[in-house]
User: Fold these one by one.
Assistant:
Number 1:
Amino acid sequence: MTVIALTLGGMMVAAGIAVLFVKDLLSAIIITGFVSLSASVMFLLMDAPDVAITEASIGAVLATMIFLWGRGKIGGDG
Amino acid sequence: MIRTLTGLIIVLALGAVAASVIPEMQMRSELQGVGYSYASRGMDETGSSNLVTAVIVAYRGLDTLGEVVVLFCASTAVVLILTLFPIGVRASEPSRIVAFTAKVLPAPIMLFGVYFIAHSHLSPGGGFPGGTVIASAFLLVMLGSSSVPDRNGRLPAIESLAGLTFGLLGFWGVLTAGQFLNNTFLGTGTPGTIVSGGLIPLISIAIGAKVASEFSGVFKAFRNTRGEA
């Protein structure tokens, strides 16, 4: 349990730093989505399924999709 | 240079704030104060086996009403801006995988969202998560079709009706129990059964419909401003 949480937390921190240094906008968006999904698993580990559901649907799906469409609008290829 | 410096200063300031707060935090093994009161009396008072929903909808229902208003303003602003300044991107045909997924998956996802909303007082879930899950099903439908019919009217109507329902349910409490958003005037039922929790299921349905239609409206606005430029 603690091992899983620590591994997940380490991956989240690494991904969060990686977002800053990735040159490609698409990769940055996908990594942000990964951070949200890990956060959702983390909430589940901390016995907060309500928050986990919200984080998974909003952070990992809806926000990522908004970012992707926004990227399409500012001149990527959609 | 200045941007990097400003960012560094902000990060260091936030770090200093966090470092000063963390030593004060202590993990208590027992709940105290308001939390203890909610946890010990919540199920008897509201009839909801899910305490999180009981706190969100029943005890702090007014805060949830404010949250719903904030979400309403935000989604209205997004749709307004996207309608006034359509910055078009050419819509691309969905690939076969996406098109097939968008035919199969939306119905189960939608059912899952409805389950979250309808069982908000029994199991983890609630109006807000359920609404977003339903909205993501509609998102999948939109991704699978190359064009979205540009009909207006129904989404805003559902949204307004749901918001109105929330408010009227609150005022119903004023009329019958003398208290805005009173949860218990309908009776609370047996905790754990589907008809229990007083007003909680009804308000959850209203919140779910509102959130789902709001997010769907935002996605539709994003999708429909494509193709003009």
Number 2:
Amino acid sequence: MGIQEWTWVTVGLTFSAYLYIGYRSRVASTKGFYVAGQGISAIANGAATGADWMSAASFISMAGLISFQGFDGSVYLMGWTGGYVLLALLLAPFLRKFGQYTVPDFVAERYYSQAARVVAAIAAIFVSFTYVAGQMGGVGVAFSRFLGVSFEMGVVIGMVIVAFFASLGGMKGITYTQVAQYCVLIFAYTIPAIAIALALFGNPIPQGAIGEALPILNDLQTDLGLDPYSNPFVNNNMLNVFCITLCLMVGTAGLPHVIVRFYTVKSVSAARWSAFWALLFIGILYTTAPAIAIFAKTEMLQQFVNNGPQGFLELSWVQNWAETGLIDTAAIAALPEASAATVGPFLGAINRDIVVLATPEIAGLSAFIVALVAAGGLAAALSTASGLLLVISSSLAHDIYGKLINPNASDKTRLAVGRGMILFAVVLAGLLGIFPLGFVAEVVAFAFGLAAASFFPVILLGIFWKRANKQGAIAGMSVGLVFTFVMIVLMRTHVVIGAEQPILESFLGIKAQGIGVIGMVLNFALMIGVSLMTAPPPPQVQNLVEQIRYPRMMSEAELAEV
Amino acid sequence: MTRQAYWQRQVKRIAILLTIWFVVAYVMGIFLAPTLNQFSFGGVPFGFWMAQQGSIFVFISLIWIYAYFSDKADKEAGLNETDDNMSSASAAH
């Protein structure tokens, strides 16, 4: 069987499993729909968080970005894992103790304000839509190559599947489907890496093979007149590497679809442990990614040097991918030879998004493994998309409809509205996927800036500083969000509206991807300043803050003791 | 132990762990990476290894330490959850 047939087999089998699980875990109450009845074990929630977390960006794009950026690609590796430390230590256990359904719920209750709820709900919708656009684009890339359908058709197929199990099973269906999707994606990611490490270096642990692979790549890059792969600050200066890493970490901790996963576990202790399991499961992929990045870059450069530009174009994997338009064959064909002068244009002609999907082919692995990677990429994109769609739906159906428009609605009506909102969100997300805004990972990276600048400071101060009040939260959240959004648009005008030049190059030397850090600092500063200038929060809110700091339920009398 | 003493210990634990987090990710993985790259760790420049491998192992360990010692502290202070005193949705307010 060829790659095409194997792909139908792996994708068909895994998708049947997801649909079966989604059908089996369908729910009939809003509590089941939004927080899976708060009965998920720490380890299952850890796996589901891992799948929720590892999106098309992590699975499909990340190793490719690292491969082309070398050391500076560390921003993604540290940024998208280090945020879990913030989440586990500063937010997750306390939000679990609070125990409500959504992030805007916490904001509304803690800041005793429906206006704060609206700002938070809008921020959640905004962040999640930015993020989901990237996922749907990823689904389109994976389907168009592996099922031989058009990009648009790939997006539509993905939409139908996500809509089916997300609207049927809500959070419960999504959680158990995500556990299955984690297993698929982690196998699909590590097996090719192990096979390559074994074939090239006789070492079955990809992380260990880096020691043998990296010196070869560094020499190869030096011979071609490039900086060694492991040299820092080649693409970005130290300030930007710092800001982007911090922005991704803080953004991770502030993403509503990640935070809400910790509402689904049984206890505060389980929330802490599930953050541990989540990062362990995520770490397996994230420590493998740099190995894949090194293997892929080494193979590509070697094939280029050994075969020359014309010979490179005749390789079978290159011809397979050329059909998708993700390798600019005309640009490579125009290069006279493989040399220091042509290596730049050569690398520029290869789309970063294909590296992971093409690595098994580049290394000449069997068709079955290539097909497995396709199934894994789809699992990653779909699991993240479903988690995000649930956040969008809950913001609209629970926070806006259920709490503001029709507070007296019955549980049944709320559930129906929740399901309807998922369908609405799916269609919108699909449209965003068909008309993409840029590289998958680039779009996703902006969601982090927005989350870092809006949610993180509000939740953190809400837990650790009793004096934080309504006025401070609204001011901080709005200004942080608007500042970051405006800055990103100004710096990316050439991508967003197709202008020739960005209106603004950078802000204090910080580029678009790291600008969320400034938004976050503004948010903190405003929140603290405005809170101190206005009245402290009422006693029952200060009691709530006291309550969420301790794992077990504290009685009124206990909290009154000084 | 009073609940205030428990909370102070938790805040202190969080502060210590986050200091390690910062040193590993930002000081070793970014600020000092060019310097650390002069040393080799199993064939890999050490700054690069910290940024792309070591830091992630440390992050996982930090959460483990936090979860493990917080469980212990909860029990010592009599603040741990049992089947009887578990908080359910909306119970906290």
Number 3:
Amino acid sequence: MPATKAAHPEAMAPAVNGPTRTAPPMQPSSWKTSPRMKQYSRFGLTGWIYLLASFAAIYIVYGLGSGPEAYAQVQALLANPLVIAFHLLCLISVGFVLVRFFGLFPKAQPARIGPAKPPPQPVLKAMLYGLWAGATLVLSVILAGGIF
Amino acid sequence: MSQGHPLLKLEPLIWFLFGQGIMIGSILMTGWLLVVGVLAPLGIIPPEALGYERAHMLASNPIGRFILLGILALPLWKGAHHVRHFFIDRGYAAHDATIGGLAYLVATLGSIVSLVAVIRL
């Protein structure tokens, strides 16, 4: 089998330049403030919040694994109004991400995989929201002491 | 980014972890953030529900550890991937290899620390 080689970026260019050349692609100066880019940036910003939320969760579990005194310190920190506000922000971010993701997910499904066809988009969307609500309810009830 | 760059070779693994992070990580994080981050500190649920004894009992059984690992590690990959794309969207695509490499390094190290945190419970 012959070895593959990266194509030269000008491989498809004509041998001789024509009388008019297409201008190189340029981003318009307004792209950073366009509504679409703002929405992308908001979605991208949730990445920072997820990283911080994960590190906060790691800190909590490390405290739990370090014994009752360390865990009591963690609980005292969690009761700080700033930390509660941060967790509320995380909760809003998770909601924002999942609503956007559940809007995109059904549209991104293939028409069929072998003999199997995905359910209609509204059904798939309802299943995703049902999974989210169900998992959140079960986990919340367990953590809040309702079960076990 | 040149062809053969490690980030391109690892793309399937990165996308797998990112996909699990955005779907399973986010779904699990909702209940965690709601109860551990908001309701318990505000005193809306009984304090003994997340007292040391009960919290340790819930977290240290095999199913609890597995779910906890998902809550700790998976969102790191969603976070790292979107931080990388945040920089691309803001015009730093030329530095994608460096930014992406750093972001996934943070997610990798965080995942290792998560695993240690769950094992030592």
Number 4:
Amino acid sequence: MDSTVHDVSRILIELGLVVVGLAVLARIASRWSFSAIPLYLLAGLAFGNGGLVPLNVSEGFIHIGAEIGVLLLLFMLGLEYTGGELVDNLRGGFPAAVVDLALNFTPGLIAGLLLQWQPLAAVLLGGVTYVSSSGVIAKGLTSDDLKTLKLLQCCLYWC
Amino acid sequence: MAVYLPLVAVLLAGGGSAKIVLSVSLAIGTALVVLLIAVRYGQPLSRFAAHESDEIVLLTTFGAVLLVAGISQRLQVSAGIGAFLVGIAVSGPMAQQTHRLLAPLRDLFAATFFFFFGLQINPATLSPVLRSAFFLGGATMVTKVLTGYWAARRSGVDQRGRLRAGMALVARGEFSIVIAGLGAGLEPQLGPLSAAYVLFLAVLGPILVRASK
């Protein structure tokens, strides 16, 4: 009993420090009107396995949080489209999606093969270089830009 | 993604070619069925689920996202595609309400997502892959700008807009991380290389967008 109470307090303290730390990073990023995402990644590197201060108690909890995070990112993306728009964009944007695939999947695939990885790992590296982020950039674009992006990205989700 | 992710997931699971074809068709079929439901019945479903209470809408949509994502994952469609389709299905006034309610949750958990990916990478494994990540980032920065430029020209955007559209595509982020996560057991360098790559382009992308204004 005593040890679970201790565990809970430890998890709360660790999580609290992590979230407050991320808040500080977000504050810095917003000060320089930047995306905070690279900073979150760097913070993870610093606290992970082999980092400056390894953090191991709450990793399971953070893992589930991370899974939910990517689901919510995609859900909110879907929220931006109605079904009709999606179908229209798919029709209109198909050639663009093919060009995108050819130009951006190929470099990753080739790099993976040059590094003498297994073919499947090279295919995954192709995927890494292929898909643009929707979360990193949103500020500083006009509505025309956004329309083009919406069209392109919409196709990405289906190829 | 709706084709690529299931394909990779099935290939990772292995098996004979007949099994692969079957699993991939099942996955794509499922995605199409859910898409059809979302497009056709999104509005009536949203009307049915709508409520003036924020609490009820929050619980309904969040629960639906997790549920559909989980089922999609079971059927090898990838949880993300399931969540995306729930987003498509939610429409009308409920979409705005949901956006307002779930945006703070997304911010919290998305931050966790990027942090967690960093946690899993040992910084010592980064230095051997830095050079490859840098070259790959440079090459795919150029190809993304070309892609955006070409696509924007096709839809009749002016010169400056074309360039901005290209620059806006340069950043890589959540999807690259999801894909890199799939291959963690396959190639030990995939995670570190992707981390360095995403770091590089997630920093560079916004700078390019700002410079092109």
